Amino acid sequence: MRILGISGLYHDSAAALVIDGRIEAAAQEERFTRRKHDAEFPKHAVEYCLSVAGCGLDELDAVVFYDKPFIKFERLLETYLSFAPRGFTSFRMAMPLWLREKLFQKQIIAKELKKLSPGFDIEKLLFTEHHLSHAASAFYPSPFEEAAVLTMDGVGEWATMTLAIGKGSDLKVHKELHFPHSLGLLYSAVTYYIGFKVNSGEYKVMGLAPYGEPRFAKRMLETLVDLKDDGSFQLDQSYFNYGVGLTMTNDKFAALFGEPVRGPEQLLTQFHMDMAASVQAVTEEIVLRLARSIRAETGQKNLCLAGGVALNCVANGKLLREGLFDGLWIQPAAGDAGGALGAALAGYHLFHGQPRAVPATGDAMRGSYLGPEFSQAEIEAELTAAGAKFDVLDETVLIEATAQGLADGKAIGWMQGRMEFGPRALGGRSILGDPRSPAMQKTLNLKVKYRESFRPFAPSVLREDVADWFELDGDSPYMLLVADVREELRREMTAEEKALFGIDKLNVPRSTIPAVTHVDYSARIQTVHEDTNPRYHQLISRFKALTGCPVVVNTSFNVRGEPIVCSPGDAFRCFMGSEIELLVVGNCLLRKEDQDPALKLDYKDAFELD
User: Fold this and answer.
1) Is 475 helix (H, G, I), strand (E, B) or coil?
2) Mean pLDDT throughout 319-336?
């Protein structure tokens, strides 16, 4: 049985394919169109999934869309009516779009599917609810026979947070929190207030938080958030504008904290860092209260997470350390792109009643390497067409040259095997560096990624060595858990260094692996496993043999505002548009100094800022 899941038409469109219960393919549309967070119908992602299935659209058993537009329209309408006459301006702007496009999404999706296959039977097009899609994406690939499933995001149709229970192939939602009370929208409101883009800048707030003090957390909990012991809450809507306006917060919100909304490129101050630290602290408190009440109420020993808030790896790390559950599993594509996968799995298990087999080891995501891959012949053909100069090496020589390049302090573009599904690069489409270098973090941010200097980088560490380097002794294959660098590897700051202001602290080495150690000694960890990514494991093992360090810097292979590279051509263009010094694609190795200078690109301002 072949089921295709689709998400999109709001942001982060994607498609995923499940065949006989096995996840065979998944990809975001942005990787093909090169438009970040592309919201259009995921035509290219669908075509990719069909190429993996080796069949046409009309040969599928079902196509499942990840939410229900009519219910979402009902929420929009009721929200405006409940706030009327406030919000008339945004109501007037939103209605034509809804009446023209979104309300008739079934017809739009059907039309797009028929463009791909005129014979497609519209009766095979099914819809599942937004948070059920998230819950399905978290539970069905998890290693658990039975689990509680917590989903948290901005908003789906009405729900902003749900508790479901999964058992075998069954999955039922038991509780919901409804719009406008939303943990995701609270975080997004502060994201907007401190000058970052909603639906893309939330992880910047998380990265900024360790520079600040949570001095506004108490004020947030006393005024904005009426938080109950069980983690449920209500937001005082008199401080927010997202229900009725075109912004996230209003003047009353600004007056409460004493500063206006920050402009996108305006200087970050201690105030913004303290706001980031405060909303992070409030988020963690809500997540921990929810988890405690779920454990007590349901008696479930395992917990699965999905929804955009589940990408908050700092909160996830605290939840893990709390030790409330025997097992914790988080969907790597926890945002709306992952809804495509959840829709496909819900279609298979819930709509078609098919049984579920729990993986004997690990989970069913296969390392999240579910995107396109390119043969060596395809790589060489594409690079040659782009005018690239490269050497083709056997695997041993390739690994040795790359590991030596890392040890020499080079920034390396690394493209191998299938592309990752989800927002994190996991050694399939990554830029790598030496974590021991005190200058690497600043160099990568400012010369390679062209992004804000405060942004931390993540470590990839061999799974067998993780406990020797970090305060974590378990799997974190999807870079969704934060833990501290081990105490004996840390370096204490001097009194003078402690007096430095916020971001200046970034330049002070905090451990023996400073490039991946955040200012609070934390690190967003990826454990690298030999069975899911043998070549990446081999590279880090060789780097360890050369240096004694089983850790490398791993950041996504793109520049600021650009989607992560998909093809060899994308990788070559990013290589030529940035200060990456060495590029490794399949068995091809490219040195910057060998390339034709006429092919150099200026990627610094090539993409809209995220």
Assistant:
1) coil
2) 96
Model confidence band, residue 244 (pLDDT cutoffs 50, 70, 90): confident
Of the candidates 11, 37, 44, 272, the residue annotated as catalytic is 11
d(CA 507, CA 421): 32
Annotated active-site residue 11? The verdict is: yes
State how far the Cα of 385 lies from the Cα of 402, in Å rounded to an integer. 24
Look at the pTM and tell me if it is higher than 0.90: yes
Read off the pLDDT of each residue in 414-440 and give the average, rounded to a whole number.
96
- In the sheet that holds 159-167, the strands lie side by side as 170-178, 159-167, 146-152, 302-306, 327-330
Go through 483-514 and write b for each residue having 16 or more CB atoms within 10 A of its CB, e for each that does not.
bbbbeebbeeeeeeeeeeebbebbebbbbbbb
The SS3 assignment for 481 reads strand
First to last CA, the chain: 39
106 versus 176: the higher-pLDDT residue is: 176
Look at residues 416, 413, 421 and name the one whose alpha carbon lies nearest to residue 369: 421
- Classify 259 as helix, strand or coil: coil
Burial (0-12, 13-18, 19+ Cβ within 10 Å), 373: middle
Cα gap 374→93, rounded to integer Å: 44
3-state secondary structure of 123: helix
pLDDT in tens, 203-231: 899 999 999 999 999 999 999 999 999 99
Q: What is the phi/psi pair of residue 143, to 5°?
A: -85, 15
pLDDT for position 150: 98
HSE at residue 402, side-chain half, CA atoms within 13 A, is 34
Cβ neighbours of residue 570 closer than 8 Å, sequence gap 6 or more: 34
- Give dist(CA 433, CA 438) in Å, integer: 11
What number of residues does the chain have? 610
Per-residue pLDDT at 583 exceeds 70: yes
CB atoms within 10 A of CB 364: 17
Q: Which residue type is seen at 82? A: S
Exposed (0-12), middle (13-18) or buried (19+): which is 119, by Cβ within 10 Å? exposed
3-state secondary structure of 13: coil
Provide the β-strand partners of residue 19.
Answer: 2, 22
Separation between Cα atoms, residue 291 and residue 303, nearest integer Å? 8
Q: Do 154 and 185 contact (CB within 8 A), yes or no? A: yes
Average pLDDT, the chain: 92
Distance of CA 218 to the CA centre of its chain: 29
Higher-confidence residue: 428 or 267? 428
Q: Which residue has the tokens 């914790």?
A: 328
Measuring CA to CA, how many Å separate 279 from each of 217, 224, 286?
6, 11, 11
Instruction: Please determine, for residue 125, whether its predicted confidence score (pLDDT) is greater than 80.
Output: yes
